[in-house]
C-alpha cells in the first residue's frame, strides 16, 4: 500500500515537474538552429508517463525570449532582432553537460553592443510538456 501511494504521487507530479522548466532533465539530442530569421530549439523529449516513445519537438526561440537592455530574459518575443551581432549566439553546455546555455552578444536600450557576451540557461524558460517543448 505504501509503495503504491508513492508511485501514484510520482506519476501525478512528474508531468508538472517536466512542464516547469528544466527540459534538459527529460530531453536528449538538444540542438539549436540560431538562424537570425527563425531561431529554433529542438530536442527529443520523454512523454509524461514514460511508457510512450519519446518525441522530437521544436519551438521557436523568438516566441519566448526577449532582450532586456542587453540581457536575454524569459517572456516577450523577437530577441534575435537585437542579439545576433558580432559572432552571434551559440549554445554551450550547462554544469550538467547539457547544451542549454545560450550565449549572445546583445544590444542595450541605448543601441550599444554589450561589451561582454551574456549567458542564459534555456532551462529557465522552457519545459517538457508530454514530449513537447513549451515556454
Write a concise synopsis of the structure shown.
This protein has 135 residues and is mainly beta.
Strand share of the residues? 25-35%
**Unreliable runs, pLDDT <50, ≥5 residues?**
1-19
The shape is: elongated
The helix-strand sequence is HEEEEEEEEEE
Helix fraction by DSSP (H/I, runs of at least 4): 10-25%
Radius of gyration: 17 Å
Q: What oligomeric state do the depicted chains represent?
A: single chain
The CATH class is identified as Mainly Beta
Separation of termini?
Answer: 37 Å
Judging by the overall fold, what is the CATH architecture?
A: Roll
Please report the number of helical segments. Answer: 1
Number of domains: 1
Record field, number of beta strands? 10
Task: Summarize the biggest pleated sheet.
Answer: 3 strands, antiparallel
Strand order of the largest sheet: 1-2-3
Q: Would you tell me the overall average pLDDT? A: 80
The CATH H-level homologous superfamily: Cyanovirin-N
> What is CATH's topology name?
HIV-inactivating Protein, Cyanovirin-n
| Class based on secondary structure composition and strand pairing | mainly beta
Amino acid at each position: 500500500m505504501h509503495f503504491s501511494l508513492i508511485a501514484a504521487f510520482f506519476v501525478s507530479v512528474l508531468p508538472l515537474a517536466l512542464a516547469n522548466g528544466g527540459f534538459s532533465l527529460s530531453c536528449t539530442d538538444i540542438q539549436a538552429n540560431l538562424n537570425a530569421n527563425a531561431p529554433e530549439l529542438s530536442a527529443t523529449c520523454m512523454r509524461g508517463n514514460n511508457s510512450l516513445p519519446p518525441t522530437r519537438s521544436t519551438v521557436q526561440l523568438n516566441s519566448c525570449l526577449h532582450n532586456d537592455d542587453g540581457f536575454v530574459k524569459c517572456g516577450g518575443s523577437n530577441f534575435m532582432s537585437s542579439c545576433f551581432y558580432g559572432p552571434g549566439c551559440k549554445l554551450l553546455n550547462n554544469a550538467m553537460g547539457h547544451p542549454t546555455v545560450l550565449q549572445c552578444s546583445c544590444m542595450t536600450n541605448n543601441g550599444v553592443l554589450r561589451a561582454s557576451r551574456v549567458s542564459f540557461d534555456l532551462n529557465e524558460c522552457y519545459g517538457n510538456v508530454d514530449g513537447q517543448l513549451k515556454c
